[in-house]
């Protein structure tokens, strides 16, 4: 008999004999039993909301690649922060779109106590003291070339950048930031920032290390949001992690813990769930994911085309982070999810 004419023989055993009477569907049969055995939950306590701030008053600018996300002037950002606090969102992360005339080769404006980020922190803290504020100590919104560090003869100079970031972190803490989140991936920046904070009396300001930040295509829409898309030449491969690597990511995170990180972050999020799980299992730190701009935009774009149910995809993607081991998620969906979870 050749394989084309041979009939497939079906099993003579009953399903009970095959499964040993262990039937996985029993607990899936009703809503109540599914709820009872559900292992992970998404709550408002898991959410950190990244926002984009600009100078001016009473103005919001659309970000074409991020429908539903706006750059906001500080008066509006304060109102949004009040709304976020009312929804129970624990923390906000601020990112600036800095006027081009203030950007330079070394990103020196990050050191200005009155730059837009420090003013945002002071304004939000004054109006909504109960919400946590996370500031990014990275140079990219402040440099004329869009890189996260000081650029000299085609090289991102590590140690000089670290010194500048540490000084910037002190300025951010002085403005009232609760957590410094360095997203630059320079070597030694966590330890340097920790030392500088401590030396200036900011022992209680925490560090959320963007520990495993991968060189990724998913940051595209963010670069439009902060105005670095048109500036950036080349890529960030000499400082972000190669997305092919997993052991290296664990070593990088381990190093940040040794230097004094209080929390770890994996970025981007959904394509890196394996990294989240490894960090949680191996380092047992408070672990966060950044569902980055490109991830947000993909869900929004597919939903806008009617190709997926946007709300369900949003919730499913966020719950996936919890399942992978996250304690929380930075997500542009934060206010939308918080409102949904409340209703
Ligand atoms: C750079 C920085 C990036 C993001 C936040 N800060 C990446 C980049 O531009 O290379 C990405 C955030 C997002 O995509 O949502 N320090």
Protein topology:
Blueprint: H1 15-19, H2 31-37, E1 47-54, E2 60-62, E3 70-73, H3 74-87, E4 91-96, H4 116-127, E5 132-135, E6 150-152, E7 155-157, H5 158-175, E8 179-180, H6 189-199, E9 206-213, H7 220-226, H8 247-259, E10 263-267, H9 273-283, E11 287-291, H10 293-304, H11 310-324, E12 328-331, H12 334-342
Bound molecules: ligand PBG.
Spell out which ligands are present.
ligand PBG
| Number of helical regions | 12
The shape, in one word, is globular
Could you please say which CATH topology applies here? TIM Barrel
**Segments where pLDDT lies below 50 for 5+ residues?**
none
**Shape-level CATH architecture:** Alpha-Beta Barrel
What can be said about the biggest beta sheet?
8 strands, parallel, barrel
Q: How big is the Rg? A: 23 Å
Give the CATH superfamily: Aldolase class I
The CATH class label is Alpha Beta
Tally of strands:
12
The CA-CA distance between the termini, in Å, is: 63 Å
Give the number of domains: 1
- Strand order within the widest sheet? 1-4-5-8-9-10-11-12
N to C succession of SSEs: HHEEEHEHEEEHEHEHHEHEHHEH
Indicate the proportion of strand residues: 15-25%
Derived structural class: alpha/beta
Mean pLDDT: 96
What is the percent of helical residues? 25-40%
């Amino acid at each position: 008999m050749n394989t084309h004419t041979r009939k497939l023989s079906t099993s003579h055993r009953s399903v009970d004999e095959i499964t040993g009477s262990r039937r996985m569907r029993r607990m899936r049969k009703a809503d109540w039993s599914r709820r009872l055995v559900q292992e992970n939950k998404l709550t408002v306590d898991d959410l950190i909301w990244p926002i984009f701030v600009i100078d001016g008053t009473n103005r919001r600018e659309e970000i074409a690649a991020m429908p539903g996300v706006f750059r906001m002037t500080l008066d509006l950002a304060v109102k949004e922060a009040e709304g976020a606090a009312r929804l129970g969102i624990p923390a906000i992360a601020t990112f600036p779109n800095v006027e081009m005339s203030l950007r330079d080769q070394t990103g020196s404006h990050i050191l200005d106590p009155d730059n837009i980020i420090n003013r945002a922190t002071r304004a939000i803290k004054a109006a909504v003291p109960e919400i946590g504020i996370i500031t990014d100590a990275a140079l990219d919104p402040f440099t004329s070339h869009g890189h996260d560090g000081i650029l000299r003869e085609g090289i991102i100079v590590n140690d000089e950048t670290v010194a500048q970031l540490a000084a910037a972190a002190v300025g951010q803490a002085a403005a009232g930031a609760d957590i410094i989140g360095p997203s630059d991936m320079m070597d030694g920046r966590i330890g340097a920032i920790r030392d500088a904070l401590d030396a200036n009396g900011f022992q209680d300001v925490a560090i959320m290390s963007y520990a495993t930040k991968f060189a990724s295509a998913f940051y595209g829409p963010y670069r439009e949001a902060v105005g670095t898309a048109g500036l950036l030449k080349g890529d960030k491969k000499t400082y972000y992690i190669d997305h092919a690597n997993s052991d290296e990511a664990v070593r990088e995170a381990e190093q940040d813990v040794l230097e004094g990180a209080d929390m770890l972050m994996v970025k981007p999020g959904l394509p890196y769930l394996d990294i989240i799980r490894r960090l949680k299992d191996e380092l047992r730190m408070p672990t966060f994911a950044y569902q980055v701009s490109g991830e947000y935009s993909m869900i929004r774009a597919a939903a806008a085309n009617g190709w997926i149910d946007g709300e369900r995809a949003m919730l499913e993607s966020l719950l996936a982070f919890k399942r992978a081991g996250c304690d929380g998620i930075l997500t542009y969906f934060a206010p939308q999810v918080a409102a949904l979870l409340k209703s």
